[in-house]
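Changelog excerpt

This revision adds worked examples to the README so contributors can see how folded entries look when concatenated. The first example is reproduced verbatim below.
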Amino acid sequence: MARKSKRGRPVAPLDERHYRAIALLADGRMNYSEVARTCGVERRTLHRWRQRKDFDRELRKLSAKLVNEWRRTSRERMRLRTAQDMTWYFDAIGTA
């Protein structure tokens, strides 16, 4: 049985456009307008998707995965203690 929205309409499962938007939002390099344009939807649609529990859950899951990966790689790079690794670290966190 299909899940229903607040308005009583059936909610379709996440499709390719949803997952593309999730990946772009989790990456954090684009704003909502750019993400919406890339996915071929209106910005309002993207905001509506963000209100969906399943969309938000997938976005949080991917964001946590990316953060954990960044932490793991930065820890590995910091162990090396070379000048190049230190430069990478400070560039990554945005300090000069």
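The second example, added in the same revision:
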Amino acid sequence: MKHYCVNEQEYIIRQAVPTDAEQLARVRYQIDGETEMMDRVQGEALLTERDFCTLIESDQQLSNHLFLVAEIDQHIVGFLRCEGSQLQRSCHHVELGVAVLKNYWGLRIGQHIINQAIEWAMTTKLRKVSLKVVEINEKAVMLYQKLGFVEEGRLKEDKLLSDGLYYDTLLLARYI
């Protein structure tokens, strides 16, 4: 567990536990409705409290999986998950996903939770952390680059957004 204070707002980042499942289901649903930068529109690929509980318990058993939450006053305001493969040829690599409730943007929660994941990847002796981001999510792209991620590829016209246009998805990675 790590404590942070940004703009006079205190928060912690810690590993997820099964009792977080109910809040995580609500937070994920809310985030999906706050931005188009996620893979889903609100209500798609819904994860229930039970789904999150199973996911957290499973992640706790796998050495190349990590599930972190950011919490303010015992309320989850963001989360990060790293998922690795169980295949020998790919188990050195994890894919990262991160999300923060819009009301808490600007508190560097994303930066701190990703840094914690990078520290974990180093101690776990992983080789690569990757992620996907829509090209027009400029703030996120700049953050990832600041944290050492580099572009490895681009999925052309990968996301259809509400403006009716197709956007590329950037494939970014950080080597440990």
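Reviewer comment on example two: The longest helix spans residues 109-123. Helices lie at 21-34, 49-61, 109-123, 138-146.
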